[in-house]
Amino acid sequence: MRSLGLRLGRRRKADPSELLNRARQGDVDARNQLIQDYTPFVLKVASQKAGRFLRPGVDEEISVALLAFNEAIDAYDGKRGSFLSFSQTVIQRRLVDYFRRGGRHAQEVPLSDFASEDPLDVELTPLDRAAESAWQLRQEQEQRRLEIEEYGQLLDRYGLRLNQLPDLAPKHRDSRSRAIRVARWVIQHPQHRAALVSRGELPIKVLAETFGVSRKLIERNRRYIVAVCVMLVNDLPHLQAYLEES
Q1: Chain-centroid distance, C-alpha 27
Q2: CA distance 199 to 62
Q3: What secondary structure, in 3-state letters, does 1-23 show?
Q4: In Å, what is the CA distance from 155 to each residue of 22, 131, 226, 233?
Q5: Half-sphere exposure (CA, 13 Å, Cβ side) for 39?
Q6: Domains of the chain: which residue ranges?
Q7: What proportion of the chain, given as a percentage, has pLDDT over 70?
Q8: Is there a contact between 106 and 50 (Cβ–Cβ < 8 Å)?
Q9: 156, 175, 149: which is closest to 236 by C-alpha?
Q10: Of residues 133, 60, 53, 136, the one with CA closest to residue 97
Q11: Is 129 left (phi over 0), alpha (psi -120 to 50) or beta?
Q12: Which among 163, 130, 132, 157 has a CA at the least distance from the CA of 54?
């Protein structure tokens, strides 16, 4: 997990909230920049909903998704969770509307079903497959970046910063593993999870008794445990994979 902190520190991008605020106030340049920065995110969400690889300039779903992202900029009020989560919901709903109106219904078809025996089907060339693989790799990298950005915003609510993680992480592997186990225990118990999410509170005494350690040890690692809990209770699969690696 300590290595996670180092990686996060290198990848962090500037908070997009300023662009979002300016766009909502009528700044066209800020709106265009926000849309440009998050086009890879929009493409990923649209492709996942369509159930297939979407090609810019070819598939209309991309235009629908970009319009939905633009709509999300105006509709977001700060009380609907993170902007990225909210915009993802708007994009998915607009695509569902598009499919219902007679657009393509690819979202109902598994990817495996695109392998057809119809001789009229055009078979992908090795170049096409390489391009698709490269696109998927870029989308995965972009999703990691977006997750890191969202994680940074979530940590801000608890007075934590991404660049603090290397210093907050316990130095020894066993200590880090124990801290992660503590975090998992917290989120698995509804009352403690609720206290953590709403107020950033940990049941120090209960944790010390449950794991057979001193309260001082839990207190010393409290901020790190909170940071892990925040990661686990949110939809951050790429970052959560780092926990499994650690």
Answers
A1: 26
A2: 39
A3: CHHHHHHHHHHCCCCCHHHHHHH
A4: 23, 36, 9, 12
A5: 12
A6: 9-109+132-156, 162-245
A7: 76
A8: yes
A9: 149
A10: 60
A11: alpha
A12: 132
CA–CA separation, 184 vs 143, rounded Å?
24
Lowest mean pLDDT among 35-39, 74-78, 119-123, 129-133: 119-123
- Per residue in 138-161, pLDDT (tens digit) is 667 777 888 888 899 999 989 999
What is the DSSP code string of 193-229? Answer: HHHHHHH----HHHHHHHHT--HHHHHHTHHHHHHHH
Q: For the chain, how many residues are written?
A: 246
* Helical residues (DSSP H) of the chain, grouped into ranges: 2-11, 17-24, 28-37, 39-50, 60-75, 83-100, 126-156, 165-168, 173-187, 190-199, 204-211, 215-220, 222-232, 237-245
Contact (Cβ atoms closer than 8 angstroms) between residue 50 and residue 61:
yes
Q: Alpha carbon 78 to chain centroid distance?
A: 17
Residue 215 has pLDDT above 90, yes or no: yes
pTM of this prediction exceeds 0.85: no
CA nearest to 245, candidates 12, 8, 5, 4: 4
Give the contacts of 11 (CB within 8 A, at least 6 positions apart). Answer: 144, 145, 148
